[in-house]
Model the fold of this input.
Amino acid sequence: MMIKKIFRCFCVSVALGCCWQAEAADFASLIPRPAGMEQIPGTLSLPSGFKVSVGSLPQGIADEAVKFVNALNLATGLDAAVTRDSNEKCLIDVVIDPSLPTEGYGLKIKSDGIDVKASGASGLFYAFQTLKKLLPPNVMAGRRGDDGAAYELPLGQIDDRPRFEYRGFMLDVSRHFFDAQQIMKMLDLMAAYKLNRFHWHLTDDQGWRLPVEGYPELTASGATNRNILRSDFSTQTQWRDGDSVAYGPYAYTVDEIRAVVAYAADRHIEVIPEIDMPGHMVAAIHSYPEFSTDPASEKLSLHEDFSHNIWNKGGVSRDVLDVSNPDVMRFVRTVVDVLADLFPSRYIHIGGDECPTLAWENSDACAAKMKELGLTDVRALQSWFTKEVADYARERHGRMVMGWNELITEGNADMEMIKAIDPVIFCWLGGEDKAEANGLRHVYTPFNGGYYINRSYADIDQIGAGRDGALALTINVNPPAHANCIGVQGTFWTEQVDRYQDLEYLALPRLLGIAEQGWSTETDKDYDDFRARVAKDTEYLDLAGFNYGSHQLK
Ligand code: ACM
Done:
């Protein structure tokens, strides 16, 4: 083990007069629970003007200390500073220890100073997040505390690392739109709980939110809805505005997307864009009917979905992309180009869920394409399409793909084609055993196991998706003990939710349970203990202005 200590210095802490009522948190109240911790009696009081030593650490790593100090100063007025000067007396000493796991960190809080160590920037970020969380809740909330308040930390040692590399939150912005500012607020919350993947479901049957050069209708008619379901949890009502009222057009600008990506990166969150295809594509088909197998809507006798009307309710449309059409494949490649340009993520999520094959079964062009490809089952056409998109993303842009479990669980999916592209499988309706058996990495987000944190029932009572026991499910339903399970995700669909405060109300506090599952190495968790920690954390949620389903804590 090589520990690269740049230098070490201490200063004596100065106790301040106290008028801030909130107390420092115990190690045992942290969410998510650290992998290893030992608290001892006593506290360290942060003195005004204290210094954080970063020695000669590269700027990209030292920046984590700068971010911490800036946030702390804003909330406390302590006037702390980061220094590279080895002659200065420092309270916090930051070192890099390459032997620590990625995202892992060590904290030693002593009566005369704090040692912080990690193998890189993400671990340091989490070390400082833990320090912020151990301080009074206004610090993590970014709210200025009372003048003269004391900022104390409990003494002891924390040796921490995450259980899983993928700790995600997915938000559907198609069914209802949520703007960049609202997403940034959720990213703050994710960072507070050490979640590190924001899965952005950008398109679906109800709206297209991504600007794509050369396809302007996507963010015009494709981003406009009529008579969409609206809801208000505070009054427990749901209604439709009527056809005369347009919802939208709502789409992000390139600048807004870049701002979200940068905001997330600052918090060590990777933004994974999802374009759901070849099903769930009605917004695109409404914009460009030629993408359908039936552009002129001549097959309405097959199903009314072939009208190409943009959807204003939930469900699964039979109107899917005509994957035999070279113009469609050109469009899809353009979309991948746009994603690769806007999102530095190693992954592009290409959906793949709920894709009926009726349209392909009734298309001469698709039959001819299958013949050309030597495919005998129409479902294999989806596997072929998935492989085409994945090959392009990898060969052209060096990106890998992710997709929903239907990629492997639909009968007659071509496993050889899917295995060849090595996708990460998102298991919402099973598939984890099959993914594991085929050596594919997978993420656990069960639809009926508490990880779908939207509202799961159509009725409009306050309890909605947060019925009694819903928070417990997030803690009691454990991810599979599979070597290829890379993590967990809280998934939020918005068919029933159009107000941002309702989104928070439903997602919280359950997303904290997902964070606990994703980080904590405890495989058998104690719900009563977890719920007590969440109840304590409502101080932070309140100060940060989050709306949450407090009934879930009863
Ligand atoms: C899904 O819920 N359709 C992935």
